[in-house]
Amino acid sequence: MRGVEDGLIVVKVGGAEGINYEAVVEDAARLWKEGTRLILVHGASAETNKLAEALGHPPKFLTHPGGMTSRLTDRKTLEIFEMVYAGKMNKYLVELFQRRGVNAVGMSGLDGRIFEGKRKKAIKYVENGKVKIHRGDYSGSVERVNKELLSLLLEHGYLPVLTPPAASFEGEAINTDGDVAAARVAEAFQARALIYLSNVPGLLKNFPDEDSLIPEIPAAEVERYMAFAEGRMKKKVLGAAEAVRAGVGRVVFADARKDRPIARALAGEGTQIH
Amino acid sequence: MRGVEDGLIVVKVGGAEGINYEAVVEDAARLWKEGTRLILVHGASAETNKLAEALGHPPKFLTHPGGMTSRLTDRKTLEIFEMVYAGKMNKYLVELFQRRGVNAVGMSGLDGRIFEGKRKKAIKYVENGKVKIHRGDYSGSVERVNKELLSLLLEHGYLPVLTPPAASFEGEAINTDGDVAAARVAEAFQARALIYLSNVPGLLKNFPDEDSLIPEIPAAEVERYMAFAEGRMKKKVLGAAEAVRAGVGRVVFADARKDRPIARALAGEGTQIH
After folding, report:
1. ∠ at Cα A50 (A44, A55), nearest 5°?
2. From the CA of A62, how many Å to the nearest CA of chain B?
3. Mean pLDDT of successive 10-residue segments in chain A (274 residues)?
4. A85 to chain B, minimum CA–CA distance in Å?
5. ipTM computed for the complex
6. Facing B91 at nearest CB: one of A112, A148, A173
C-alpha cells in the first residue's frame, strides 16, 4: 500500500533577505495539489533582527571556539524570536497556502514537542581571543521529532509548516537551528528529498561569487569538498552528508529568489548532494 | 462508548492586564491529568496594544453605530496582532503546559482553518456624530469551526491552545472576536461548560464595583438582565445565552486573578448562565 509518506519532500526556506516566499508557496501548493506530500520548515532571522532593533534589544551573536556563530538567546530575545518566527512569518506562510486552497497547519517545535532536544544553558564563546562561558541561554539542538503528530496531519490532508523554537526535554522553549531541525524531519520520514532554499544559487566555491556554484557533491566525497567550506557552509555540507547517510534520498541547496524554486531543485538545479 | 469529547470544557482566557496565566495553566493541566478534556482559547489585547505603540503604529478602535468598539485592523496591525497572539502569547501558554508535562498544541484560527468566517471589509463607524465607512479591514466573525482537526488532536492526547486570527473563506487572515470563537468551539462540541476568565469576578451589576457581582442568570431570563448590561457586557450576556440555547451545558464568567480559576468556576463561583 502506498502511504501518504512515500516520496515525501522536506523544504527548508531560510529567513534571509531577498527570498521570494510567494514563489516558494506557489510552487509547494502546486506540488501538493498534484499529490506530492510535503513539509515546510522556515526561518525568519533577518526579520527577527529588525524587530529586536526596533524594540531596543538588538541581536547579539556569540562566536564559538570552532568559528561558528549563534544568536545569544535570553528570555527577552526568545519572546522576540517567537513573535517573528511563530507569529509573523509562520502565519504569513500559512495564509499564503490558505489563499491557494491548501489547508496548512503552522506550528512551532514547542507544539506537540514536534522538535525536541536538550537545552544548552552554558555556551562557550570567544571574546578578545579568550574562551568565556555564557550562562542561562535558551537554545539547544533538535534530537527528536514527533513524527506521529506530523504523520497524523499529513494523513488527514494538512500541510505542516514548522518553525523553531523547539522544546527542551523539560518543556522550555529553546532557540534551535532550523537547518538541523529540517534534517531531523527528513531523516524521520526517510524523505525523498530535503531542499534548502536561500538567497544564493546553492553552495558556492568562492562565496559570494554566484558563478562558482558547486553543482554536485557525492556524499562519499564530502571530506574533499570541505577544503572549500568555511563556517556556516561547512556545517551545511556536513549536515547534508549526514542526512544522506541517514537515509534521505538527496539534499539540494537551491535558490529561493526564482519562480518554481522547488521544481527547479528537484530537476537538478542548485547543489545536489546524494 | 465514552469518547474523549464527553464532558469537554472550553476555557477562554482574556488578554487584559492582571490575569494570572500561570494559575490558569496550572489548573487546566491538573484537570487534564485527571482526565478532563479541555480546549483553551486566548486573547492578548493589552500586549498587542503595547507592541503596536512600541512599533509606532498605535492601536485605533472604531465605535460602531450600536455602541460596540472594534480594533481597526489594517495589514500592519494584522502583523502586529499575529506576532503577539499567535507568537508571544500562544507559545508562552504552550510552554507553560509543556513544562507541566501536558502536550499542548498551539494554533491560530488560520491553521487548518480552525476558525473560519466571512471577511468584513467595510465597517460602519461613528465619528463626530456621523456614520462613516472604513474599507479594507482585515476582520470578521467566526462562523465555522474545524471540529474534525480539534477532535483528532484531542483523541491523540494533545491539548489545543487556540487564538485569533481566523481564516476568511478566501483564506485571508482576519482579526476576530475571541469570545465568539470560543463560543463556536463550545457549541461544536456541545461542551459541558464554557468558561470566560478575565480580570473581574464575573458580570458586575455596577461595573467596576466587584461587590455587585451577578451570581446567576437563567438563560431564559437574559432579556431582563439586559437592563444592567452595556456595550461589551451586553455582547457577553447575549453570546452566553446563545451558546446555552445552542447546547452548551453552562457558561461561566469568572476571575483569572485567583488560583484554581477553572475549578472555582466549575464549583459555582463567578456568574453562572445555564
Report:
1. 120
2. 24
3. 74 94 98 98 96 96 87 96 98 98 98 98 92 95 97 98 98 97 98 96 90 91 78 83 96 97 98 95
4. 7
5. 0.96
6. A173
Per residue in B24-75, pLDDT tens? 999 999 999 999 999 999 999 999 999 999 999 999 999 999 888 889 999 9
User: What chain A residue is nearest to B98 in terms of C-alpha separation?
Assistant: A171
Residue among B110, B107, B100 at smallest CA distance from B21: B100
Nearest to B84 among A83, A112, A167 (CB): A83
> Looking at this protein, which amino acid is placed at residue A4?
V
Give the integer Cα–Cα distance in Å for B158 and A72: 31
C-alpha dist (Å) from residue A46 to A16, A89, A137, B98: 5, 11, 20, 28
pLDDT at B75: 96
For chain B, domains (ranges, CATH) are 9-58+73-115+142-273 (3.40.1160.10)
Beta bridge partners of B123: B134
For residue A256 the three cell numbers come to 529561493
Distances A226 to A105, A124, A203, A214, A222 between C-alpha atoms, Å: 37, 24, 12, 12, 6
Return phi, psi of residue B76, to 5°.
Answer: -65, -40
Compute the distance between CA of residue A168 and CA of residue A179 in angstroms, rounded to an integer. 17
Angle between helices B147-155 and B178-189 (to 10 degrees): 70
